[in-house]
Amino acid sequence: MNRTAPTAAVNRTEAPSRKVSQIDLIYAEVLAAIFEQRLAPGTKLAEDALGEIFGVSRTMIRSVLQRLAHERIVQIHPNRGAFVAEPTPDEAREVLQARRLIEEGIIREVIRKPSPEDIKALRLSVAAERASLDKGDHPGWVRLSGDFHLRLAAIAGNETLAVYLRELVTRTSLIILQYQKGNASSCGCDEHMEIIRAIDAGDEPAAVALMRDHLQTCEDQLHLEDREAAADLYAIFAKPGRTVGKGGRETRK
Question: How far apart are CA 199 and CA 59, in angstroms?
Answer without folding.
Answer: 46
